[in-house]
Design a protein that fits this description.
Structural class: alpha/beta
Radius of gyration: 19 Å
Helix content: 40-55%
Order of helices and strands: HEHEHHEHEHHEH
Bound molecules: adenosine-5'-diphosphate
Number of strands: 5
Low-confidence stretches: none
Largest sheet: 5 strands, parallel
Strand order of the largest sheet: 2-3-1-4-5
Mean pLDDT: 94
Shape: globular
Strand content: 5-15%
Distance between the termini: 51 Å
């Protein structure tokens, strides 16, 4: 192939992030929820998405349901697979953020290492860490999916909070304890944090 075949004129370049952001009238941002199973990550993510959508802001939730069943359906729960799970989520999330979309990730992401990897892939200026700090006792009492009972009886091994560690984030951008605050209060404090960061025009 001739050398010149690799030279592309500038007008054929892909449009950039700011083109997308201007089109949407919002800035892309990753809102990364971390916390124990049953702490309320998905519930708050869904309520937050509705509130942002109602204000004309485009969002995308990434959670276990749409990630583990698709792009990550070949991954298990070994340490290596958990890391690869988060790496792919962060890479996919980055594509959404680069498209100007408010991206909301709801994954346990139990260690500093995993959260730091996600933040460095996405870029720390585009990454908000939200720690859903609901105590283990409350999460276990809720036992939404019956997983804690299975973890206690040994049916599930390496379950975060029971038989695998959860490292409390050092400096989250926001901490929400859903045993104290209801969903509305959690969402309203999230909106206070997020809205100033994603506004371009008067929305
Ligand atoms: P996670 O995604 O962290 O595993 P879920 O959102 O699936 O957690 O489950 C949290 C459970 O806690 C839901 O059944 C939800 O209705 C309940 N819950 C009670 N109070 C709150 C609250 N203030 N915020 C979020 N969830 C709450």
């Amino acid at each position: 192939m001739e050398e010149t075949n690799h030279i592309y004129p500038i007008f054929e370049r892909m449009l950039g992030r700011s083109d997308k952001e201007n089109l949407l009238g919002q800035r892309g941002l990753m809102i990364w929820f971390t916390g124990l199973s049953g702490s309320g990550k998905s519930t708050i993510a869904i309520a937050l998405e509705r509130e942002l959508h109602r204000r004309g802001l485009l969002c995308r939730i990434l959670d276990g349901d749409n990630i583990r069943s698709g792009i990550n359906n070949n991954l298990g729960f070994s340490e290596e697979d958990r890391k690869e799970n988060i790496r792919r989520i962060a890479e996919v999330g980055k594509l959404f953020v680069d498209t100007g979309i408010i991206t909301i990730a709801a994954f346990i992401s139990p260690s500093d290492e995993l959260r730091e990897m996600a933040s460095s892939i996405i870029g720390k200026d585009d990454f908000l860490e939200v720690y859903v700090s609901t105590p283990l006792e409350e999460c276990e009492k809720r036992d939404v999916k019956g997983l804690y009972a299975k973890a206690r009886s040994g049916v599930i091994k390496n379950f975060t909070g029971v038989s695998a560690p959860f490292e409390v984030p050092h400096k989250p951008d926001l901490t929400l304890d859903t045993s104290v605050w209801d969903v509305e209060r959690c969402v309203s404090s999230l909106l206070d944090l997020i809205l100033p960061k994603i506004r371009i025009k008067n929305i």
